[in-house]
Amino acid sequence: MAVNPRAGEPAQASDLANIPRLVTAYFADHPDPHIPGQRVSFGTSGHRGSSLHQTFNEWHILATTQAICVYRREQKIDGPLFLGIDTHALSEPAFVSALEVLAANNIEVRIAPEGGYTPTPSVSHAILKFNRNRTTGLADGIVITPSHNPPEDGGFKYNPPHGGPADSRITSFVQARANQILENGLADVKRITFEKALHAPTTRVHDFLAEYVADLRQVVDLEVIRGSKIKMGVDPLGGAGVHYWGPIADRYGLDLTIDPTFSFMTLDWDGRIRMDPSSPHAMRRLIELKNKFDIAFACDTDHDRHGIVTRTSGLLPPNHYLSVCVHYLYGNRTGWSKDAAVGKTVVSSSMIDRVTAKLGRKLYEVPVGFKWFVEGLLSGALGFGGEESAGASFLCRDGSIWSTDKDGLIAALLSAEITARLGKDPGEIYRELVREHGEPFYERIDAPASADQRAALAKLSAADVSATQLAGEKIQDILTNAPGDGNPIGGLKVIAQNGWFAARPSGTEDVYKIYAESFRDRGHLAQIQQEAQTIVGSVLGVAAVRA
Question: How large is the average pLDDT for residues 73-98?
Fold first, then answer.
């Protein structure tokens, strides 16, 4: 990826989204359902887009909300629906549209007091807490967020009664029904005015913040943090958790400096504003302040991702911190089952594999997407689930369920618990892991691929690969299905003794993504990346002929 020369610089007025134009386009412009790019595309992370491109407009949200109402009826989900929003400009109008439809469909909706913002994990936690010990009248939720995407984007996702991201069976149903509704010109949408919806007897207030903050001690050892008197800094990046950190600090007596101006915002790698806590460009200002704190952290706009800044190492790459989390949690959570496995995605670092093996725990490797961890976290079969894009969640200290969606707040606070208990920050602990297990060199790059090639890559079998070596080493395994749950990874993973690569097609661009790692050096990593493109190119040629 070519890095923009302005990456890491403060955003200027010319970089800001035109909010009035954005909101006007949301209500004024209508998508054409006959244009593929303007249809509802309800993937793992929900429907995302921008009103300026007719990809996230009022019609999309009306149709998608009505489709969710249909799904609820068919599945006999008749408990409350927890509705949360983040701070993106399009989240407010989408909230209005959604509530108008939900109320018209006579669905009990729980919203935050006074239109408050709601982090994704607080919605997941609320669903799970409501559903505990229930078999009927189950709750579910909608979170209006495009995660860390730029300010002009909007997002809309559905969490069924298990509290986590909806699986592909559900999202396929919602997407198909929503597009059908669009094609019918919204004739099937039930809707009342926002004023009536807001005051409908089915619309009730739920204090997400108070519930979440009160329960936090169940999942993070806040007493050890308070007792250590370590100094912490947090940057909410202007996100939905901005009002959560103060009550957390006050309730638990933490020395926590909260300043949403730390990093709001320096430009990301491509010169755009993006609230990505794992990006050294977006996190530049907080990184510059690292010596003021024993540990510092940030979360993205809906607070489901984390970024950890240490005095000793600066911003930790997500894979480094996930490895530290596994090492620490499974050594210190005595209330967890001895059989609780470690969850990771197929494109996460193999350092996690080595740490897990040292702990004597089972590794549960799944395709990309947090939805694959939901059942394991829900049942307690997984103690921890983490993905390379800085998303993670884990069980309560007693082994009970906390959330089945990514939770950036608990991941951030865990870094403080680690620092407080061990007297070393996560950067120091990662260096110890490197001395024990070797140093990995990890990178993700993009390579060009046509739409047909991307489709072919998603459907490969291991038999399509004829190569026997990778960067001078014998290929040990070729995967097109995840070894943990057996589900297709939507691409290919090739593994040798000291390195591996995975190739997955982009869903929106004419590229495929190559994730690669070497436990030798950067030269070996570059060789893996080069040979990965050769192997994939050869395989795609075979697949294209078959098609």
Answer: 97
Which residues does the annotation mark as catalytic? 147
Rounded CA-CA distance 153/52 in Å is 9
Q: Quick check: 307 and 409 in contact, CB under 8 A? A: no
Q: Any idea what DSSP says for residue 296?
A: E
Structure-token match 């949690």, residue found: 329
For residue 351, whether the previous peptide bond is cis, meaning omega lies within 30 degrees of 0, is no
The interaxial angle of helices 168-183 and 58-75, nearest 10 deg, is 130
**Residue 396, Cβ neighbours under 10 Å: how many?**
18
Could you tell me the pTM of the whole model?
Answer: 0.94
Cβ neighbour number for residue 106 with a 10 Å cutoff: 11
Q: What is the CA radius of gyration of the chain?
A: 23
**In the numeric block, which tokens belong to residue 455?**
């489709």
CA distances from 369 to 18, 42, 278, 391, 397 (A): 32, 14, 17, 10, 25
Cα 27 off chain centre by: 28
Beta strands in 203-244 (DSSP E): 203-205, 232-235
Q: What per-residue confidence (pLDDT) applies to 148?
A: 85
How distant is the alpha carbon of residue 66 from its chain centre?
A: 25
Task: Kindly state the helix (H) or strand (E) to which residue 370 belongs, with its residue range.
Answer: none
Q: Give the closest residue to 401 by CA, choosing from 367, 418, 376, 372.
A: 376
Tokens of 318: 């997500």
Residue-wise pLDDT for 410-455, tens only, equals 999 999 999 999 999 999 999 999 999 999 999 999 988 888 888 9
